[in-house]
Amino acid sequence: MRFHVSKNLLYFSHRLSGYIIYKFYACILPKIQLRLCLTWPVPSPDKGGGGGRQVVDSRHSMITSNPYEILPKIQELIFLVCDQLTNLLWLQLLPKATGLPFLTCRRLIPNSCALGRCILRATVTPHVQRLSSPCRGLQLLLLLLLLLPLSNVCSQMLPVSNSQLVKFLPGFQGPLPFELETGYVGVGEEEEVQLFYYFVKTERKPEEAPLMLWLSGGPGCSSLTALLYEIGPLNFNIEQYNGSLPTLTLNPYAWTKVSSIIFVDSPVGTGFSYARSSFASPPSDSEQVGHALQFLRKWLVDHPEFMSNPFFVGGDSYSGIPVPVLAQLISDGNQEGVRPAINLQGYILGNPVTVPQDEGNSQITFAHGMGLIPDDLFESLERSCGGEYQTIDPRNAECLKHKQAYHTCISQINLAHILEWNCELVSPKPPLHMLDKRRYLSNKDYNVFSESTPPPILDCRSYGYLLSEYWTNDQYVREALHIRKYAVQGSIGRWKRCSYDIPYEYDIHTSIQFHAKFSARGCYRSLIYSGDHDMIVPFMATQAWIRSLNYSIVNDWRPWFVKGQVAGYTRTYSNRMTYATVKGAGHTAPEYKPEECSTMYTKWLYEEPL
Fold first, then answer.
1. Are 181 and 155 a contacting pair, CB within 8 Å?
2. How many other β-carbons are positioned within 10 Å of the β-carbon of residue 120?
3. Do the beta carbons of residue 561 and residue 569 sit within 8 Å?
4. 163-355+506-605 is a CATH 3.40.50.1820 domain
5. Fewest Cβ atoms nearer than 10 Å: which of 94, 292, 394, 574?
6. Residues whose CB is less than 8 angstroms from the CB of residue 346 and which lie 6 or more positions away in sequence, other chains included
7. Which of 23-30's residues contact partners 24+ apart within 8 Å by CB, and which partners?
8. Measured distance CA(9)–CA(34) in Å, rounded
């Protein structure tokens, strides 16, 4: 019944638009013509039999010369504005009249344009053609001036979403051998937030292969980090920068070989995402989740060919907070009948922040186990601090003294990978409140590269991060990626790999309860992995919260292999959760061990044992 109502409303809305324009031409414009064209010379044949020569006042020649040449273009613009009017009517009236979800109504709009255009042409064109020749140019100009402001209003009220294919990228030789799409999707109550994304279509049967939405950590790190350094199809050639554009090469271990991935710059202020208004609220954990869910539903509406594909949500580092929440909201929406339904199969988390307090405390246990601090200091810390190293009573002088000794021992260690060089990082310095709340995250927060300090040397892993700054801020790269030049509040500024300076509210303090609730449903799979040399989120902290879920072990601790060599250790649980360590990897694992992580992901994705 609702389908027939919606069809009738569609037809009615287009007929209404046509009728409005018909009345404009038939009733209003003649009156304007009467006032403005009374003295207009009427074309008439030359009395001298001169072959129908028309006499036109030269004062009006700029307006009346060749009106037929501009007529098709003006008509086309009129039809476009009518389409916008119809879309606006559709968005405002259809959900209320039929009870259909807003996104469903929005998806129907593009399909209505062809019908509406045909109706409008049939309704309007005859009246345009009946206009008197001398005043046609002026009449069309008046109509255009009247409709342009309305067109601007419509364009601001309609959903903001666009995407374009990228076939070539500066720095890469030849056309891209995979399909890359970039674009913006508007989210928020008035779509005041514009989230930028990179979509890579898999090379392996994209019509049926899994689809994953990927969120990078930070919070505030661009998803280009994952695309260029971790799991995407491209890597930088690590070469000394000489002023020319850094070059790109294919990543043979890209996860996009077996699944399509949407890399999203989230939250707002990250990468190329921006707010259209200065009054937009500062991002938070909960807002990031809500925006990600809106983004996903809108993206699927615009890409209906992927609606039935198995879907996973994934992320690493700080995304260990929002990803489980997002997965639960998707599941809740499916159970409540929200459309479009999302074929959710599970989630994937690498080196995930989950229980921040415990992860910060476990750094000392990790440092002791790795031989970074001696037994007696570790025992003194345990005795004086009682296992709590993040929130220390300022009156506990002994604990503070031992904590300072600990910092002295590890101050020159690269916490992201304790065996790698400790180098300057290409990131802005995070604000003090972030250091206070998330100081366990990384010594990346403290090692800051700026113009006043020398850049990292070529042997440092962070040198590759520097190349991304040069590459992404190149004008031709931004044009190739279809980056908008201007936001409402000004130009979209310089790209930063991690924007730690954005205001952010940490309103989800732990995601453990979301893991628990999601696992209890028993119908979803999850993969949790850790780099075993990561001191930012130590593997023992991750194992601890997994054990706290109290699920029985299905396959106990055992090694898993790549090319006959131990690549890590794994264990599976009755809630369909797989945990794996990646031997020799840091924070985050795919950047350090791409082949091993690609093998792990592919096997897990297609339900093969590690």
1. no
2. 22
3. no
4. yes
5. 394
6. 312, 327, 524, 525, 526, 527, 576
7. 24/143, 25/124, 25/127, 25/128, 25/131, 26/127, 29/131, 29/139, 29/142, 29/143
8. 37
Mean pLDDT in the chain?
79
Residue 513: both structure tokens together: 């309860």
pLDDT in tens, 380-398: 999 999 999 999 999 999 9
Give pLDDT, residue 483. Answer: 95
pTM for the predicted model, two decimal places: 0.74
Tokens standing for residue 495? 């790209």
Beta bridge pairs of residue 184:
162, 196
Confidence of residue 76 (pLDDT cuts 50, 70, 90): low
In 108-216, DSSP assigns E strands to 161-166, 179-187, 193-201, 211-215
Between CA 112 and CA 238 the distance in angstroms is 50
Predicted confidence band at 345 (pLDDT cuts at 50, 70, 90)? Answer: very high
Residues assigned a catalytic role: 317, 534, 587
pLDDT at 406: 98
Q: Please tell me the number of Cα atoms within 13 Å of 99 on its side-chain side.
A: 4
Q: How far apart are CA 192 and CA 488, in angstroms?
A: 10
Residues 239, 223 contacting (CB under 8 angstroms)? no
Q: CB of 452 within 8 A of CB of 523?
A: no
**Phi (first) and psi of residue 275, to 5 degrees:** -100, 140
Report the first-to-last Cα separation within the chain, whole angstroms: 51
526 or 139: whose pLDDT is higher?
526
Q: How crowded is residue 572: how many other Cβ atoms within 10 Å of its Cβ?
A: 21
pLDDT at 276: 86
Other residues' Cβ atoms within 10 Å of the Cβ of residue 472: 21
- Cβ atoms of 124 and 78 within 8 Å: the answer is yes
Instruction: Tell me 59's DSSP state.
Output: G
| Tokens describing residue 169 | 């990228």
Residues 6+ apart with CB under 8 A from 449: 424, 425, 426, 427, 455, 456, 462, 466
> Which stretch of DSSP H or E encloses residue 385?
helix 375-385
Phi, psi of 99 (to 5 degrees): 80, 5
Three-state SS string across 281-343, please? CCCEHHHHHHHHHHHHHHHHHHCHHHCCCCEEEEEEHHHHCHHHHHHHHHHHHHHHCCCCCCC
Sign, CA torsion 285/289/295/299: positive
Q: Check whether 111 has a pLDDT greater than 50.
A: no
pLDDT for 424 equals 73
Distances (CA, A) of 584 to 226, 368, 369, 449: 19, 18, 15, 26
Question: In this predicted model, which residue has the larger pLDDT, 110 or 368?
Answer: 368
Tens digit of pLDDT for each residue in 280-337?
678 999 999 999 999 999 999 999 999 999 999 999 999 999 999 999 999 999 999 9
Tell me what pLDDT residue 432 has.
Answer: 34
Residue 338 clears pLDDT 80, i.e. is over it: yes
Q: Are 435 and 445 in contact (CB under 8 A)?
A: yes
